[in-house]
Specification:
Layout: H1 5-11, E1 34-37, E2 40-45, E3 48-53, E4 59-61, H2 64-72, E5 79-82, H3 93-97, E6 100-104, E7 107-108, H4 110-115, E8 120-124, H5 127-130, H6 133-139, E9 142-145, H7 155-164, H8 167-187, H9 189-194, E10 196-201, E11 208-212, H10 217-224, E12 228-229, H11 231-234, E13 241-245, E14 257-261, H12 273-276, H13 279-282, H14 285-288, E15 292-295, H15 303-317
Parallel strand pairs: 4-8, 5-6, 8-9, 10-12, 10-14, 14-15
Antiparallel strand pairs: 1-2, 2-3, 6-7, 10-11, 11-13
């Protein structure tokens, strides 16, 4: 399976991992969470049941997705991963820059984490973190959200909220996102019923771009809006990507709208500018009609990322009368 670019920033040579446990509903009173004592709770994690502080005060986050959700819920970790500022969504950069960095390039610094005296360590059960789980657990209770290529971005805030005891903040974020979905479905009902979408990005294969499936992060959000898909995205196996030559712009001919990945500064990501330079791409109906839109939230990891993606989709929908 082709790697997602945002996973590359934290997982490096990450392969597909199986979902370790069934996804549980997560809030301060969610199922899968029970009181172990007056000062602790038991939460469901990728590594089984873990006893964590009832109200953790010093949280270390070793993965970007848990970091983003903590910041979304007004919790500032004492330590976070360093995935490179250029890969941190701009909405989080000011807070992220001020926090001690405890992991870089897939390497977790156990001594730095111990020095921060955390009462809880959170993350996602990707392979390089799974490898150090036992060592992290000797420092503080460690709770990882299950990782799966088929999981949606909403799964990670759910788990993070359960781990950090931020259920009320999580519910507010979820409602904000759900309300935004409902708003767009109502406002752009006619466009969503007729516009066919393709989802692409530059990829990391020389001379190729990637076509994403309906089960991709962007595809899943479009599906929740009731959108339909053009043949390239519709024909890609769910949860997978197609890596195709830049010369195969013809695959995108029946798309009414195209959405693609851009860097935080708005520039095309992962060499997709090479695709954009081709006459075949420039003559595509979606492009000549002004219906191609880039988004830095192509691979959302939090509800704020999801809301950013919805803003990008709305930008494209507005181009249809």
């Amino acid at each position: 399976m082709t790697q997602h670019p945002r996973l590359r920033r934290t997982v490096l040579a990450l392969g597909a991992a199986a979902l370790a446990v069934a996804l549980a509903a997560c809030s301060s009173t969610a199922s899968g969470e029970s009181t172990a004592s007056a000062g602790t709770r038991t939460v469901s994690t990728a590594e089984g049941e873990v006893t964590v502080p009832a109200h953790p005060q010093r949280i270390v986050s070793v993965h970007a997705w848990t970091t983003e959700s903590l910041l979304d819920m007004d919790v500032t970790p004492v330590g976070v991963e360093n995935s490179g500022e250029q890969y941190v969504p701009t909405r989080y950069v000011p807070a992220w820059k001020k926090i001690d960095k405890i992991a870089e390039g897939g390497t977790v610094d156990l001594e730095k984490i111990a020095a921060l005296k955390p009462d809880l360590i959170v993350g996602v059960d990707v392979p390089y973190l799974k490898d150090v789980y036992a060592k992290l657990s000797t420092i503080a209770p460690t709770a990882f959200a299950p990782f799966s290529e088929s999981a949606t971005f909403q799964d990670y805030p759910k788990y993070t909220a359960a781990f950090a005891d931020t259920g009320a903040a999580y519910e507010a974020l979820k409602k904000k996102y759900d309300d935004r979905i409902a708003e767009l479905r109502s406002t752009y009902a006619s466009q969503l019923a007729t516009v066919k979408w393709d989802v692409i990005q530059g990829g990391f294969d020389a001379g190729n771009f990637w076509i994403y499936s309906t089960g991709s992060p962007v595809g899943g959000v479009l599906e929740s809006l009731g959108a339909t898909f053009a043949s390239a995205t519709a024909g890609t196996k769910s949860g997978d990507t197609q890596s195709v030559s830049y010369e195969r712009t013809d695959l995108l001919t029946d798309a009414d709208a195209i959405i693609y990945y851009v860097n935080n500064d708005g520039t095309p990501a992962n060499n997709i500018d090479k695709l954009f330079a081709l006459p075949g791409y420039q003559s595509l109906p979606a492009v000549t009609g002004g219906h191609a839109v880039g988004t830095p939230d192509f691979l959302p990891g939090s509800y704020s990322d999801g809301l950013g993606l919805l803003d990008s989709i709305e930008k494209a929908l507005k181009t249809f009368s």
